[in-house]
């Protein structure tokens, strides 16, 4: 028989032990929730837009269940100073505290998480510096996200103790200065560094030299005005992806990336680039496969700079000032290209042999340009490999020269992007606004230009040689007829007399 004491113990323990779903009961909580993942056999716990008191009570209940929380999330809870008591004895693998107004963190706030915590996200808070003392005990931390805080300086040894750290995001802060020893302690482990959306005026080259195993570096949306070969020296040869989009670069100098022997992807979108040195990509000829140069100020395809890139697969030149695609623009490097983005330029001419080198081309984007004609001979070399083409929003002249393209669309051999919606005729006026796919063959006619002069009234001749012969013969017959007529006229005296009387009377 169960004693009264045993019954009380059972009832007490039921308040903190997992229910049938695997989660402890959170009595009267307004914004905290526990979810048990049955297949994974793990617990997720979150508190959103609730009071600090409710968060503390619910967190304590989860901690007393002695379960390791897989995902722990606090969001939109007014915390300010993050105290150790907020977590208590709770254990978790992944912890997010998002938009909680956190300004500072107790040194021992995460001491109970040191053995289990793999990722920590304190994004969208009000931290003014990296909370090094609080982080130092997290030896197993793999990912740290301090995005969208108020950090202006990354001080020396800011990530000391995080010997397992591989992924670090400092996106959207106000960072102007990175100490030369900022990454000391994580140099051998850090593989991904995100510094997007800060206030850096130069590439922080000396701090980066410590990161010997870095594979992924994003410096988008800073204020970087120039590059030098030395900017990436000493970083090792493991960097595969470099992002420099939306800075203030105006040119790419000689051998700018020569030290990055393994660089596979380079993003230079959204700068002010007008000039690229012919040897700008020397050193990465064999490794680079993805290159973004969109939204710059290039007036032509930088062919001389690109010729060295023997394995380039994806070339993005959208939204520049390019007017022509010349015959040798893809020479020596075009055979590996699979994607070409040239939309939103000013292209009005594609020379006849411009696409001949593009043996692997699958996707071609030429929308929003000034093309009025697309030549069959120009596109013929790529039709066997092409899978998609976008020619929408161009001022096409719909005559006989575009008939082949209309037929190609109807055959549906590949995807013509936006064809039915936006690829339309601009001229002649009678076809303005009409979809090219819907134009009949009878409408796609070429009208020969009429020549001027007296000869235009003469009927067309079958061929030029015959025309010359007929013309000379015609002249001879005409003079003969005139001579015959004069003879007939003089042979009739009565007509002559009548003519004379008429002249005298007038």
From TrEMBL:
Q: What keywords are annotated for this sequence in UniProt? A: Leucine-rich repeat, Repeat, Signal
Tell me the ranges covered by the LRRCT domain, including all copies: 394-447
Q: Which GO terms describe its cellular component?
A: plasma membrane
Q: Sorted alphabetically, which PROSITE patterns does this protein's record hold?
A: LRR, PROKAR_LIPOPROTEIN
Keyword Transmembrane carried by entry: no
Q: Where is this region: Disordered?
A: 451-484
PANTHER family from the UniProt entry: ANTIGEN BSP, PUTATIVE-RELATED (PTHR24369), CHAOPTIN-RELATED (PTHR24369:SF210)
Question: What protein does this entry describe?
Answer: LRRCT domain-containing protein
Source taxonomy lineage? Eukaryota, Metazoa, Ecdysozoa, Arthropoda, Chelicerata
